[in-house]
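During the reporting period the student researcher (J.K.) took over the structure-prediction task from the postdoctoral fellow and processed the backlog of single-chain submissions. One of the processed entries is reproduced below for the supervisory committee.
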Amino acid sequence: MSFAAMMLLGCALDSVIGWPDGLFRRIGHPVTWIGALIARLEAMLNTGGPRQRLWTGGLVTVLVVGVTGGVALVLQSALPSGWLGVVLGGVLAWPLLALRSMHDHVLAVERPLGQGDLASARTAVSRIVGRDPNQLDTAGVARSALESLAENTSDGIIAPVFWGAVAGLPGIAAYKAINTLDSMIGHRNARYECFGKVAARLDDLVNLIPARLTGVLFALVSNRPHRALSVMRADAGKHRSPNAGWPEGAMAGALNVRLSGPRVYGAHLAKEPWVNEGAPDPGAPDLGCGLGLYRRAMAGMAALLGVCVCIGF
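J.K. obtained the following structure tokens:
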């Protein structure tokens, strides 16, 4: 069974259909199911001192990843052989991908920003970033959206496709469990510093290869491949994340804008270094260019999957 073909079909379905709102209202979404399990276990077990929280958080991480990957393994084992199994596997992989929603969320920022409607753009960007939108000017909104586009292309699309192509449904499902764990409990604060440490480190590990692949893919499909690669190599290590700086650096170099930099989370000012410092701030036209880069990157990913299918991977 070709796992690459399964991922290619899943990507095609998500690009064309997305995850329908009606379906979401009726049954939710696999990520919300995983999130509900995490929330229940966290409420039960995130107690005690730092050492106890570290151990119980690690146990929750292993349990959630094991259950999610195990269910996916059972489903994959039940698939028929041949192309029918590939088609059914692609349908099962479809909800674990986010090609269309990523594009649409950034487009929802780009349209009002291009019309000068900063208030609506702030509302739209607040749906994809954690910082205070009321603190963002036009450049801040554009920068936030581009950073989200770059980072989420990696961990919302390239990474699950990569692990799905490597290990099929268990690979993509286990990755989504790890990524959901990190987004829910992998925070550096009093509640999650110890409890979410294992989840956060595991998320860093499984994104090492996909983040770098995403950066290279952005560079290769851009109009400034040498500049994108140069900025990525120079500035990726400055980022607070061991992985997010690679796609963000490539995006910044490809569009010739600066990203990251100081930002406000609640009442806290995070003094982050600039990525591609010295370049101009982005604006609404750069969001359009970023979406164009994203679409070309998705086409490039599909082409790579097609090559994998042709060589029997």
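The committee noted the following: The CA atoms of residues 258 and 276 lie 5 Å apart.
J.K. will present the remaining backlog at the next meeting.
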